[in-house]
C-alpha cells in the first residue's frame, strides 16, 4: 500500500517540485516556495520518513523515494514537472529522471552526488562512525533505528554510474557552493555526464538554497526563463 506524502503547495502554473535533503523536510525551501509561486505551482514534498510524511514499510532507499515521487505525481494528476532537488533530493531527481524520463521537463540538481565517494572525507568519516554506533543500538531503540536509516542513506547510497546520466536528456542546471561538502570534481563529473547540463558554482557552502537564497534563486530563475525561449 502506498503512503501519502505530506506536501506544501503554493501558486499556479507549471509544476515545480522541490525535493529536500537527508533528515530535512520541505520547509528547507522556504525561500524558494514563496519566490517562485508567482509563476509556478510550487510543491515542496516531505520524503518518506522525513518531516510529516510517514515511514511506511517499503525500503528506505533513493530508488524507493523516486517511486514514491512517481506515485505522488500520479495522485496529483501531474504529467510532468521541473524538479529541483537538494542533496539527497538531487539524487532522487536523477534516479527519477532516468526511470521516468517522460515525466521530467527539466532538472535543477543542487549538491547531489553519485556515490558516497563524492562526499569530502572530512564530512563522510564522522557520518560513517555515527552510522556504526547507531547500528549497535538500532534493535533496542526506535530513535537509533531511525538514525541508522538516515545515516545509512549517506553511507550506502546513492549508487549511480556516471555513464547512466547520459540517459538524462532534459535541460539541467547543476549548482553547488564554493565550499560544498560534495567534492567540486564530483559535481563537475555530474554536469559533464548529462548531455544538456550547465554548471553554476556560487559562493557558499552545501546549503546555498537556504543561506545564499538570493544568488541561488537568481541562477535558478535564469535557468527557468531559458526553458521558455
Overview of this structure, please?
The mean pLDDT is 97. Strand 6, helix 6 and strand 7 form a beta-alpha-beta unit. Helices cover 41% and strands 18% of the residues. The chain is built from 8 helices and 7 strands; from the N terminus they run E-E-H-E-H-E-H-E-H-H-E-H-E-H-H. The chain is an alpha/beta fold and 229 residues long. The chain has a 7-stranded mixed β-sheet, sandwiched between helices. The radius of gyration is 17 Å and the shape is globular.
- Sequence of strands across the biggest β-sheet: 1-3-2-4-5-6-7
Q: Rg to the nearest angstrom?
A: 17 Å
Series of secondary-structure elements, N-terminal to C-terminal = EEHEHEHEHHEHEHH
Report the portion of residues in β strands.
15-25%
Strand tally, please?
7
Please report the number of helical segments: 8
Descriptive terms for the model:
229 residues, single chain, alpha/beta, 41% helix, 8 helices
Structure summary:
The protein has 229 residues and is α/β, with parallel strands linked by helices. The protein has helices at 30-36, 62-76, 88-99, 121-137, 142-156, 184-193, 208-211, 213-227; strands at 7-10, 14-19, 40-45, 81-86, 104-110, 172-177, 197-202.
